[in-house]
Automatic annotation (TrEMBL):
This is Steroid delta-isomerase. InterPro entries: DUF4440, NTF2-like_dom_sf. It comes from Pseudochelatococcus lubricantis. Residues 27-135 form the DUF4440 domain. It holds the Pfam family DUF4440. Keywords: Isomerase, Signal. Its EC number is 5.3.3.1. Residues 1-21 form the signal peptide. One of its GO terms (molecular function) is steroid Delta-isomerase activity.
């Protein structure tokens, strides 16, 4: 009986660890896809990373929900006088059940002028009903 319980407990631990690894990989892929979509100017695809229940706070822009944040992305991508290019440096992904927290730093290059903006942030993801991981909350700021 003891060994059976031990085997069941070990199987549960391994299953949980495997699920976390899968979720971590899915979230990393979602962030990489967002980067590719944003850099290619695909507005609708870029907005798909965000949940309809999004609440975001970016220093200098204030709090914004899904519609406002996607409007900001659309205006930025529609501005033909400059090109924006994001790159992500993912520091860590912590997954617990249907929620995950991602600590990362975005680097935004704006041309012409080659301006660089370093934007550390914290994203909270949730696995939504369609199975996709989306950002439900985030906070970010630009470094001085």
């Amino acid at each position: 009986m003891f060994f059976r319980r031990l085997a069941v407990a070990l199987a549960a631990i391994l299953t949980c660890a495997s699920a976390r690894a899968d979720a971590t990989a899915e979230i990393r892929q979602r962030l990489e896809q967002w980067t590719a979509d944003f850099n290619a100017g695909r507005k609708a695809e870029a907005c798909d990373l965000f949940s309809k229940s999004l609440i975001s706070d970016f220093r200098g822009q204030g709090e914004a929900g899904y519609e406002a944040r996607c409007a900001i992305i659309s205006r930025a991508l529609d501005d033909s006088s400059r090109k924006l290019h994001y790159a992500a440096d993912i520091k860590e992904i912590i997954v617990e059940g249907a929620l995950a927290v991602v600590r990362l730093t975005w680097t935004l290059k704006v041309t012409p002028g080659d301006a660089i903006s370093i934007e550390p942030g914290l994203d909270v993801f949730r696995r939504e009903d369609d199975g996709q991981w989306r950002i439900i909350r985030y906070m970010a700021y630009t470094e001085d």
